[in-house]
Amino acid sequence: MSSVDAAVADGIARPGWRAHAAARRASAQARQAPAHLTEPRWVRTLLLLAALGFLGLFLFAPLITVFAEALRRGTALYFSAIADPDAWAAIRLTLLVAAISLPVNLIFGVAVAWAVTRFQFRGKQLLVTLIDLPFTVSPVVAGLVFILLFGRHGWLGDFLLAHDMKIVYAVPGVVLATLFVTFPFVARSLIPLMQAQGSDEEHAALTLGASGWTIFRRVTLPNIKWGLLYGAILGNARAIGEFGAVSVVSGHVRGLTNTMTLHIEILYNEYMFSAAFAVASLLALLALVTLALKSWVEWRTNVQQGGAGRAAIV
Amino acid sequence: MHSSTISERRRGGDAPAARSGPSHGAQASRFGVLPGFGLTMGYSMLYLSILVLIPLATLPIKASDLGWEGFWAAVSAPRVVASYRLTFGASLVAALVNTFFGFVVAWVLVRYRFPGRRFLDALVDLPFALPTAVAGIALTTLYASNGWLGSRIEQWWGWKIAYTPAGIVIALIFIGMPFVVRTVQPVLQDIERELEEAAASLGAGRLDVFLKVLLPAVFPALLTGFALAFARAIGEYGSVIFIAGNRPMVSEITPLLIISKLEQFDYAGAAAIATVMLGFSFVLLLFINVLQWWKGHRDVGRTK
Fold first, then answer.
1. For residues A312 and A16, which has the higher predicted lDDT (pLDDT)?
2. Could you give the number of structural domains in chain A?
3. Smaller CB count within 10 Å for chain B: N or C?
4. CATH topology of domain B80-303
5. pTM given for the model
6. Per-residue CA distances from A42 to A38, A115, A264, B95, B107 (Å)
7. Nearest CA in chain A to B141
8. For residue A304, what pLDDT is reported?
9. What is the pLDDT of residues A284-293, one digit of tens each?
């Protein structure tokens, strides 16, 4: 099963799922840890300071920088940077791309998880490993392949030109690149979950005469809804924040093919730092909301399933 | 993911809900009983082929336009080799730093109680949620010579961080941070206190317990976290290009080189370098899979 639960997880470091349950269990232990089972006080203090220092330098400082820089020149400039037509176009495009990727990724995630966890077939390991591929492939490479396929000199370049269609350096290319980097998220959060749940309930429904669609809707879906949500949250964060792959295929046409991250890059390179950070602060807020939602889902699945169901939630 | 199944296995059958690996293997092998195999499998394969496999296949095919010698010349030009050295070197340093501090952070989060622990725990995933471009401009501003941290570092030690390879390492530390924490954390949580108790009662000091009981148990997870952080760092682009300075031979990473080839319309050259990177992605993926397998099997062995 090594690769079913293989871990090339980008956002999907799924231990988080169960971290909280186990943390609760561990917290009881930790509080009572007797002297011979814990470190001397100075070691504990030192480790705690090291951890806080590390997180402070590499996590808090950048996060605070985003908001501090965004508001440094005052709120008027902040709001005018966000209200700028190019910024609005970028926000709209980013939301459009996210809105397209989300359902596509959900459908693919459910389909592949159903095939992988409910059936036995040759090459399953390979399929599961393939799903991990976008996590190790550089986003730049992900963008490049679409240029090679659909670019002016690409394989389908002549065909597209003849039919007056544009994929790269246009919105469809941005969507494709985003789909490439985000498709594993839902699949990756569903596969271990559905694996752990097993298919007893579905088989029971089948013997009671339920159709495939009914089984899925009435039995499977309620069981996996939190896993779906979890994958959707992480995939969505990536879709909105993707930069490398999108930057290769977008062509950077202002107001047309610029996503929010690309708009930030342009502003930054033009030394409009406050404006760049103003738009960046929106994305940083969204990242914080994502983390809050993620923690909430982890907490919910915990409470709902209790200790016994925990094994099922990866 | 891996960690949960491990813990299930380790607990053996004691929890009724821990339906572990082998049993659903048996269920799933009732091939064809549940409906939808053709539909879901067909759709998955079609989707993967169109979105991933066919596009990735264009890389070696396009690169083969160059011929074997041209390919070799493209991927071994001095500027390209310098970029490999930088990309791999910086990724290695960043992954090592993350392995060490990630372990410390995981340790502190699991073992110690302090105010704000939950908050900190949730925030560790920030690099997954924050767009890399945002991280890039924030880190650059922070570590530039006139930045809040950069100015102090330069004043105290005379080091320049932003626009040097050191800046690249900083960015890669940021994006790789959660991997080690999130792979080590659950393993650390599942270690039974009885083991430490036993070691202590046999007269082992705290350091002995750490080195001989805890560290070996955590080691595979540490290695996996390291590999994940390393793999992620190799391909990273967004957070690095802002802080790197991007000077050829000095601070130009490989993904950036692909983009500059593309901007010169050297598609075959870009594809050649991308093929090398893709090959390396496969190798890392394989390595990580082997690690997972090792981790799983070690744990199974231990329960018995």
1. A16
2. 1
3. C
4. MetI-like fold (1.10.3720)
5. 0.83
6. 11, 53, 45, 27, 15
7. A65
8. 58
9. 999 999 999 9
Touching A: B residues 98-117, CB under 8 Å: 101, 104-105, 107-114
Calculate ∠ Cα A130-A136-A142, nearest 5°. Answer: 85
Q: Which residue in chain B is spatially nearest to A197 when comparing CA positions?
A: B19
Contacts A265 to B, Cβ<8 Å: 133, 242
Return the DSSP state at A169: T
Would you state the structure tokens that stand for residue B185, as one six-digit string? 């954390």
List the CATH number of the domain containing A55.
Answer: 1.10.3720.10
Residue A244 near residue B255 (C-beta atoms within 8 A): yes
pLDDT digits (tens, 9 = 90+) for B225-255: 999 999 999 989 989 999 888 878 878 899 9
Instruction: Kindly write down the DSSP assignment for every residue of chain B, as one continuous string.
Output: -HHHHHHHHHTTTSSTT---HHHHHHHHTSTTSSS-HHHHHHHHHHHHIIIIIHHHHHHHHHHGGGHHHHHHHHHTSHHHHHHHHHHHHHHHHHHHHHHHHHHHHHHHHHH---TTHHHHHHHTTHHHHS-HHHHHHHHHHHHSTTSTTHHHHHHHH----TTSHHHHHHHHHHHHHHHHHHHHHHHHHHS-HHHHHHHHHTT--HHHHIIIIIHHHHHHHHHHHHHHHHHHHHH--HHHHHHH---TTTS--HHHHHHHHHHTT-HHHHHHHHHHHHHHHHHHHHHHHHHHHHHHHHHHHHH-
A66 at B interface, C-beta within 8 A: yes
Residue A1 inside a domain? The answer is no
Domain that includes residue A90, residue range:
15-312
Query: Which residue in A has a C-alpha nearest to residue B110's C-alpha?
Result: A23
Q: Which residues of B47-61 are buried (b: 16+ CB within 10 A; e: fewer)?
A: bbeebbeebbebbee
In a domain, A261, yes or no: yes
The per-residue pLDDT for range B136-173, each reduced to its tens digit, is 999 999 998 888 888 888 888 878 777 888 899 999 99
pLDDT for B30:
46
Does residue A222 fall inside a structural domain?
yes
The answer to whether position A8 is within a domain reads no
Interchain pair B55, A268: CB under 8 A: no
Residues in chain A with CB shorter than 8 Å from the CB of B301 are: none
Give the model's confidence band at A36: pLDDT under 50 very low, under 70 low, under 90 confident, else very high.
Answer: low
- Which residues of chain A lie closer than 8 angstroms to B170, CB-CB? 58
Q: How many residues does chain A have?
A: 314
- pLDDT for B174 equals 94
Rounded CA-CA distance B224/B232 in Å is 12
